[in-house]
Give the backbone structure.
Amino acid sequence: MQAKQKILILFGTRPEVIKLAPVIAALRTIQTIETCVVSSNQHTTLLKPFLKIFHLKIDYNLKVGTNNQTPNMIAGKVLNRLDAILDKEKPDVIVVQGDTTTALAGAFAGFNRKIKVAHVEAGLRSGDINSPFPEEMNRQLISKIASFHFAATEKNRKNLMNEGVPMEKIFVTGNPVVDSLNFIAKNWEPSKKLLDLIESTKGLKRILLTTHRRESFGETMSGNLRSISCFIKKREDTCLIFPVHPNPNVQTITKEILGEQERVFLIEPTDYHDFIALMKKAWLIVSDSGGVHEEAPSLGKPLLILRENTERPEAIEARFAKLVGGNSNRLYNLLEENYGVDTWIKSVKKVQNPFGDGKAATRIAEVLANGK
């Protein structure tokens, strides 16, 4: 009997779980593949509900997550603790996703042991190695290591080819975040707590906010929060729903600026099915999240991107998203502009998602099964 190919899947943050869960499920349907699931636990409390939703059992937990640690600290722990697992399990391929410190450390660990690396969501480029930081450099370094490059879009493929990645190592699959979104929308209902929040804001134009990226910390985030605060105060038929990230850099400034304001709902990070329900009920989404770039068009929702630039220009080109930049005054002006004339907001309902059709995981699993 032919020996099974062993594939180790590594993740450590909430977005990685969301995007790798359908890949793991697809790999487990292939008889010639054995999976080994490893969590770095870069995110601690945020991971648990997502593991439950996607029925994911972890084989190894590296337990690297602690408060206020630097990317170097995370990378060092992942490299050190993953090494013993690689020695024991001897995988043929390590699968990493995106641009986290966990993903970079996993790819580097594979390189050091001459294990093939598969990169899901390959080829994203902002053009500025400091934005987003450190993600843009992380993803470029992973591309130097990977043997399999799973690109979400044709533009991502071209980015990789421009950097010298051989065409035969690049596979345009779509992004498995669309697979996850479709699965959740079909199989899960919102919690009672979330339904109560939606009912209590009935008749209001709901703005859904997420902001947590490192480059947003400090003056940029405080400026954006003040602009949103001013807009909500002025427009009495609006409200803000903000699942506040547990990072102290987000928590402290949020409570200071928005803590006592009417029609502002500061809630804990939600389960994924509740977050999708919130997106569905939003009038407008304001976010610095890469994943939200990819989810919003499937739900027909307009997005204001709280970044200087985006590695997902397809969002702008498809006209469901607008780039705010680092200027909080521009954020306020965009809110006012689209409140006064909602032509753009209504037009987004008809946009096709440029990031995938919900079949990415199957495509990725089939390539890995072939082992080429």
Summary: The two ends are 20 Å apart (CA to CA). Residues 71-89 form the longest helix (19 residues). Residues 90 and 278 are 42 Å apart (CA to CA). The mean pLDDT is 92.
